[in-house]
Structures are given as structure tokens and as C-alpha cells.
Amino acid sequence: MPIRILPPQLANQIAAGEVVERPASVVKELVENSLDAGADQIEIDIEKGGSKLIRVRDNGSGIAEQELVLALSRHATSKITDLNDLEAITSLGFRGEALASISSVSRLTLTSKTAEQSAAWQASAAGRDMQVEVQPAAHPVGTSIEVLDLFFNTPARRKFLRTDKTEFSHIDELIKRLALSRYDVSWQLSHNGQIVRRLKAAKTEEQRQKRVAALCGRVFAENAAFIQNQYGDVRVWGWIVQPQACSSQSQCQYSYVNGRMMRDKLLNHAIRQAYGDLLTAEQQPAFVIYLELDPRQVDVNVHPAKHEVRFHQARLIHDFVVSALGDALSQLTAAPLTEDRVNRVQEAAAYNCQPDGGNRQVSGRPSGSYGGYSARQPGAAAVKRELSYWQHSHTAADVQAETPAQPPSGGAALSPPEPSQQTDALLIVRNRYMLKQYAGDVLLIDLVPTLSAYFNANGSPAVPLLLPLRISVNAVQLRKLTQLADSFSRAGFDMLLTDNTVIVRAVPDWLRQTVLGHWLPLWFEQLVQQNSDDVPETLLLMLLNAEGVAAATVLRSVPQVLLLSEYWVSAPLQLDTTLSLLTRQQP
């Protein structure tokens, strides 16, 4: 058989085999086009699971009349123009195959109007012939696309469609994932004339958390903790469920790279590895994780449906995600305080203790060089040392931390020295005491009274919870909480007292990574037992001593210049206590 070029119609149907797997695939391509067009209102109408009708309407920028025919042609797109654009893609679509592929296996009608046009225009194409007809139409600024009788001309593929209920469940799941990727967009999904989902644009943090709670369910919202970690231009944030709340059923498992929803093997492996032994073989992790990085460091042109990406520095990204999530999960598990852990000195490198949250520059090293990374399961401390090495390799001089041979005379904490005497050496021990080196002396600070004084004077920003936490209290606790209502408000709590129940609606930012349902009831008991009126101090004492929250996490929200001067509190430590703390030097 001679070699020849395939007819355009056949080529489009071959491409449709990759792009159009089922009705949900059509919805994905059309909605992503709407998002790329700048739409902030998207309506999706479905009939018979998508086999009869798929209609997507948006208020985006629209398509000009003279470009309608071109829009239905293969390899026609407004997203990229040359090879340089392909190396740094910021749009969801870029191949220019979707509309041509969809129109080759359905009856497609595209109606659009731009702000510059006085009237809208409509283009229609159907099946193998794909002859495009353009005519005037009535339509506001934006685009509507109707896909009728999907696979009407390819019966072999149509018979592989599942029931209407099953196909619509895939579409509904898709809209959930898309709605979690774009909080600034209003969504409406209808099936057979009935509205199934209606989501208003979530512009505030509280509204975004409510959307997560609505889409992922009450169990997820009650057991999820917000995490955030950044290193240079690589940032990971989102919500993860504490290990003990993970079930054997696959719950919300959504990951995104630069706003693009993913089912990437590397990310899934990193998330599962972060949970590690905290999950049994039957348990499944639950998460909504967002990874953001320079578009030039990720290649999205590796999968026809764009479900996977390829990272240029895959090892570094993998280990960073494992480390960031592992740190958060170690705080959520709140392991019991054993004698071994009491005697162990807990190191905190500059990466964990900088006021800026450990931001560092990752770029600058040649691509493919991983600074000594090897194929091993990384521990959190090991990854931090590697990331710190990347940073220090590009600074003018490395910071060398030296522990003095002799402790401060007298064993008492020193007075805060002048800022000009400060160095960068910093150490946190026993998750409570901060050591700061100044020339030949070491300043030892007890973080409990110091942070308490700071929070009492400045307060802490309140962060709303995904779902309010309800805690039952007795009459004595309720009376005590009522007396301290103003103190709770200054500390960053938003709580409602009703009958014998406390409804916690918001907590301070530094408490977001704790198991609130476990610690807050214990805290309320201690407030009564100790008859203390210092709200932050009682909570800090309990959390830092039990390692319920990392001291470095709290310090990120506190300007250290103020901490070491205006709000510094001397701790009554004896010489032998100081000597026991100074057992190891910072690496």
C-alpha cells in the first residue's frame, strides 16, 4: 500500500480518539477554553449524561467573526505562536485540536461575540464532512458551544459509553476539580434541566475555604489542615487530612500544577511518601494540593489529555513536596512526649526559622544538577539541608554557626544586645527555647512567655476554619471562657458560646497546622485547672512542650527584631539547664 497523507477528516477523528474519550473529556476541553478566554461565569448544561447535549456558555472575550471558521480547524489556536511559547505555557489549552476533534464526532454549534462587534455570529459543523457554515445570531459578549449527538457517526465508540448516570458522575467530578482550581469563577452545572451545582465566585479566604468544604465534604473539612511552604519560586499549599482520619475509600485527591489539574505520578508518589507509615495499607490519603513554580521549569506537552507534566528538576520537586507535607503531617500526628524526645535537641536550620517563612532562591544551578541528591527516601531534615545548600552556594559567604565553649556566666539569660552585635546563628532546642549567638555570647530565650507577650500586645490574624469546630464544655469552663472572651478575640480566635457548646469559627494563623479537635478541649480544661488569665501562654506551653506545633512555625509570623528586643522576656534558667540545652551546635 502506498504512503499517502491522511484526509483532514480522518486525521481529526484519529485525534478525537486521544482527546475525546467520553462526554467529560468534551466538557473539560470546552471549559478550559472558556477559562483561557478570561471568563468568570461559566454555565454547563448536560442532557442524557452528555451523549445527547453538552452546552457550555461563558462571558469570556469571545471569538471574532473572521476567526470562527479557523477556530474549528485543526492546529489553530490563539494560545501560542512559536517554540518559545511552548517552553513556558501558562494557558490550559495550546494544541489547537479540541474543537476540530469534537466537531468531527458530533454536531457542533459555536456562537460568539466580542466586545468590539455589534452582532454575534454562529458557526456550525457536523461529522466527517465538517463543512463550516457561518450566520448571524443573537448572543451577549462571550461564547456558547453546543455539542449534539456525541459519537453519532462513530457507533463503535458510542456503544462503549456507560449509563447516563455514570457519564454525568464523571462530568460532575470534573467540575469539582475545575472549581477547586479557579476560585474566582462562578460555576453552574445542570443535568436534564435540573441545577446540580451552583457555586458563586470565592474571592475571600473564607469563601475559598467554604468552597473546599462544600466540594470535598464535611469529613474532609473537619479533619483537614491548611499547609503552606515555599522555597524560592517553588510553592506548595493546600489542605491535607490528618492520617487518623483517612479512610479506605478514595476521598478528595486533587493536585494542581500552576492551576492545571493533574493526575501526575510524581506528585502522587511524593504525597503518598510524605504520609509514609502514618497510613495503613488500606488507608488512602486525602488532599487538595497546589504546586506553583516557574512555567519554564515544567513541560505540560507530554500527554494528549494534559493529565501529566514533566518537571525539569523532578528530584528536587519530589523531595520538596515530601519534605513540606512530611513536616505538616508530623505536627498533625502529635506523637506522645517520650523521655527520648525530651532529651533530644531539636535542630532548626535557618530555612525553618527565618521570619520570611524560609524563602530561598532555587534557580541558578545548571539544569540536571541536584546538589548531591541520590535515589533515597528523603527525611525532612535531609531535604532541608539540601535546600539550604542550594541557597548558600549562591550567597557571598556562608553563615557558620558556632557554639561557645563556655555558657554565659551566671547561668541567667542575657540582656538583649544591640542589633549591630547580632549574627545569623539561630537554634531552637526542645521545641521551646531559642538560642541566638552574639559574638562570644549566647542569648537564651524561653519562647512561651516571650511569644505570649508578643501576641497579647499585637494579637494574631484570625484564619477561618473550613467548617466551624463544635466543642462541648461544662458550666465551669463556659464561665471561664466567657470571662476571657476579649482575650480570646485579641489572640486571634473567633468563638461563639451557646448553651454548653463552643463553636470555633477562626483560629490564629500559626494554629492552622494543628489537630484543633484534639488540643482545644485539653486547653479549655487547663485554663480552668490552672486558673490562668493568659490565654496565649497556656496554649503555647501545652503545644510547644508536647510538640503539638513546631516553634519554628510560630516564629514565622513574628518579626524577630521585635521579638528579641521589645517583647523579650528573661527566663529563670539555671546554669545546669543552660548546659544541658547547649549539647549540639547548628549544622
Description:
By secondary structure, the chain is of the alpha+beta class. It has three domains: 8-199, Heat Shock Protein 90, CATH 3.30.565; 206-385, Ribosomal Protein S5, domain 2; 425-587, Ribosomal Protein S8, Chain: A, domain 1 (2-Layer Sandwich). The protein is 35% helix and 21% strand. It contains 22 helices and 21 strands. The strands form five sheets. An eight-stranded mixed β-sheet has the order 5-4-3-6-2-1-7-8, with helices on one face. A five-stranded mixed β-sheet has the order 9-10-13-11-12, with helices on both faces. Helix 1 (8-19) crosses helix 5 (98-104) and helix 18 packs across helix 19 (535-545). It is elongated. The termini are far apart. The model is unreliable at 334-380, 382-424 and 571-587 (pLDDT under 50).
CATH level-3 fold name of the largest domain: Heat Shock Protein 90
Strands, total number = 21
What's the gyration radius in Å?
29 Å
Task: Assign the CATH architecture of the largest domain.
Answer: 2-Layer Sandwich
- Specify the structural class: alpha+beta
- Mean pLDDT reading: 77
- Give the termini separation: 70 Å
Strand order of the largest sheet: 5-4-3-6-2-1-7-8
Percent helix = 25-40%
What are the low-pLDDT stretches, counting only 5+ consecutive residues below 50?
334-380, 382-424, 571-587
What kind of assembly state do the chains in view correspond to?
single chain
The main pleated sheet reads as: 8 strands, mixed
- What shape does the CA trace take? elongated
Strand percent estimate: 15-25%
Supply the number of structural domains: 3
| CATH class term of the largest domain | Alpha Beta
CATH superfamily of the largest domain: Histidine kinase-like ATPase, C-terminal domain
Number of helices, counting only DSSP H or I runs of 4 residues or more? 22
